[in-house]
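Entry 12.
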Amino acid sequence: MANKIKNAAAIPVIAIPTTAGTGGEVTMWMVITDAERRVKMAIGSPFVPPTLAICDPLLTVTMPPQVTASTGMDALTHAIESYTNSVANPISEALALRAMELIAANLRLAVAKGDNLEARDNMLMGSLLAGLAFNNTRLGLAHAFAMPLGSWDIGLPHGMANAIMLPYVMEFNRIGNFARYAEVAMAMGECTEGLSLREAAAKAVEAVKALNRDIGIPEKLSTVGVREEMIPAIVDETMKSGNVLVNPRTPTREDLVEMCRRAL
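Predicted 3D structure (tokens):
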């Protein structure tokens, strides 16, 4: 839902993130979970962004490795999906590319040693830049899937849902924008010299898979409690997301079911 909030907050809002993931300290989006209906709803408005954001890496050093990993992959998914979707623009592209570079170079370090202040600082900046990137472009199928996956009784964290689904979504999306996914691979440090665009785009998927493995993200939804009988309801809810509309490849319901099954 967009533009439902008609008035600014009565007092200034100061946002101080303690994770490096959502970018919520600079975006116009917030999420509300209806626990009874098991539905997550995104609400956007120009009146939502905080007045001031204070990003201090010292406030993120006590994040456990798993939280660091899942929130970091949320930020990376923001960057990749905003960069590759159908409404990306030169400003969002520049922000997303730099976010990818920072996150790809620092997430492993932040997970491995939580008190690495340089890595923590770079992750906060990567998250912030990714938030600015998707603020107006929206995202893609990984985030569309993450909404229902995060609202089921299994309590799958949003970043974890994104991290698990991202490689499967990228594999589906590649033919919609080979050039952009090749650039994602380069931003993540992959060597693409001498490769075709198709081959280079495949490197982006492999880079995300390798990052997931290194930081302990499960490869399959089945390991976090998702079951085959859940897929129809998950897909029904996924199809309602506005992020489906800007995804670089238009999916059918059958496509979404197949992605879920592959991820399962």
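Annotation: The mean pLDDT is 92. The CA atoms of residues 13 and 50 lie 5 Å apart.
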